[in-house]
Write a structure and sequence with these properties.
By secondary structure, this protein is α/β, with parallel strands linked by helices. The chain contains 15 helices and 19 strands. A nine-stranded mixed beta sheet has the order 18-17-16-15-11-14-13-12-19. β13 and β14 form a beta hairpin. α6 packs across α14, α9 packs parallel to α10 and α12 runs antiparallel to α15. It is globular and about 80 Å long.
């Protein structure tokens, strides 16, 4: 009770406020005397993977206030806030729509929980679809990354996968299954695919990416492609110019850049949370069962360069004053690359590995403290800011929904629609070309090539259970 009044609380996004929302609020208010309405913040929606919200938090809160039904409108900003609010405001009844039936039963230990019937025939999803028709997308590729991307696109309201093109030896069935369309058209060529869609996502071997990007842009399609996209700066600049000339989006699919945790880390570093950054150390290594060392393009730097270099290009810039690549080869296959970058006031040591394994964490060293991101840092959902006294460690956790591809897909849709807001970080052309410069050196053999030394072991013993 609040001053003798029965207090009711309810929560929602309230995007594109409609009469269904209003009816639900009236039902909630009828349960008591004082109604508190929690409106989910932009940050909290993104953390939960809800990426189809059209209006800002301010607009949505004003829409709720304008009804005059709520006695108090608050922002919901983090997981667990509902319990904190129930305690803070002395809530008697938690009310929520019936489509959440059973999901909030754990709150019954704090107050009564009531599931309210929804108004049939109206939804924010339908209104969003009317306001912004879906964008037809095509997928080029049928590997596990393409399948994951297809699965994640179902969580991005304006992305509609309409066709797929796969390479020899790949099966389009898995992509069709994830899209939920058994009759999804399977194009016979890239040209045929591009005739059916407005934008394409490309997951292909690094040596095929430049050609596929060129074909898609020439056909008038927006492009998002796994990186590194280019093997030479000249080609990269040419294709970026082609995209600009045609008014098309060309972006690299580096999903970590758009994770909620990575965004927040960037803001904290820019605000001086650890002082001036002096060094970054990070590793990204894999030893997958499917690795084929006969295919040089599955090697360490060919396929992992964009990810392992991301912390340096994002936090230190795209113009290092010096760089060297230290590589270990098995025949022509590069299994290990250490990239050492020097900036005017900082350094970075970044390791990419395929067919070998090391700790995949990241440490960002500053003059006032340091950031520690546990492995795998490229799937970042947690990090710590530490100082001299570890008792003062600040811990940050941000849920990453699914495999994370939905975040980059959402950004791709936003750019295609011409979104100009500055909420999300934009990866510049120069960030992409900074990686391209190092790729060009790597391919030219401008590397320090390690030899097998005295401590190279080719054998070993295996104990087998009897």
């Amino acid at each position: 009770m609040r001053n003798g009044k029965k207090v009711v609380v309810t929560y929602g996004t309230y995007d594109m406020f409609h009469h269904g929302h209003e009816a639900l609020l009236r039902r909630a208010k009828a349960l008591g005397d004082y109604l508190i309405v929690g409106v989910t913040s932009d940050d909290f929606d993104r953390v939960r993977g809800k990426l189809n919200v059209n209006q800002s938090l301010t607009e949505r809160m004003h829409a709720v206030e304008a009804t005059g039904i709520a006695d108090l409108v608050i922002a919901e900003e983090y997981q667990g806030q509902k319990i904190a609010d129930i305690r803070k405001y002395g809530v008697d009844i938690f009310a929520i729509g019936s489509d959440w039936e059973g999901k909030f039963d754990h709150l019954k230990r704090y107050c009564d929980v009531v599931y309210l019937p929804r108004t049939e025939g109206v939804s924010s999803t339908a209104l969003r679809a009317q306001a912004a028709p879906k964008i037809d997308l095509g997928i080029i590729g049928g590997d596990y990354i393409a399948v994951r991307f297809a699965r994640e696109c179902s969580h991005v309201s304006d992305a509609d996968i309409c066709a797929v093109y796969t390479f020899e030896g790949q099966d389009a069935a898995e992509v069709c299954k994830e899209v939920g369309k058994e009759d999804l058209p399977v194009a016979a060529s890239v040209e045929e695919l591009c005739q059916q869609v407005k934008g394409v996502y490309i997951s292909a071997s690094p040596d095929q990416r430049e050609s596929l990007i060129r074909q898609a842009l020439t056909a008038g399609c927006h492009v998002m492609c796994e990186g590194p996209m280019f093997f030479s700066r000249a080609v990269g600049e040419e294709l970026f110019a082609l995209a600009e000339e045609k008014g098309l989006v060309l972006m690299e699919a580096t999903k970590t850049l758009y994770f909620p945790a990575f965004e927040r880390l960037r803001w904290l570093l820019e605000s001086g949370a650890v002082g001036e950054i002096k060094d970054i150390r990070a590793s990204f290594t894999q030893n997958p069962s499917w690795l084929n060392k006969g295919d040089i393009y599955q090697g360490s730097f060919y396929d992992l360069a964009s990810y392992v270099l991301l912390p340096a290009t994002t936090f230190l810039g795209n113009e290092p004053t010096d760089a060297r690549l230290i590589c270990s080869y098995e025949g022509d296959f590069c299994s290990w690359t250490k990239c050492e970058l020097l900036y005017p006031s900082a350094s970075a040591s970044l390791i990419a590995g395929r067919g070998m394994k090391t700790e995949g964490d990241m440490v960002i060293t500053g003059t006032l403290g340091y950031v520690y991101v546990p492995a795998p840092w490229w799937k970042m959902d947690y990090f710590e800011i530490r100082g001299e006294d570890l008792r003062d460690t600040k811990k940050y956790y941000f849920e990453c929904a699914g495999e994370g591809h939905r975040y980059e897909a959402f950004e791709f849709m936003r750019r295609i629609r011409g979104g100009e807001d500055a909420y999300l970080p934009m990866q510049s052309k120069e960030d992409v070309l900074a990686v391209t410069d190092l790729m060009e050196r790597f391919i030219a053999g401008d590397v320090i090539r390690l030899q097998q030394g005295a401590y190279h072991f080719g054998g070993g013993e295996t104990v087998t259970d009897r």
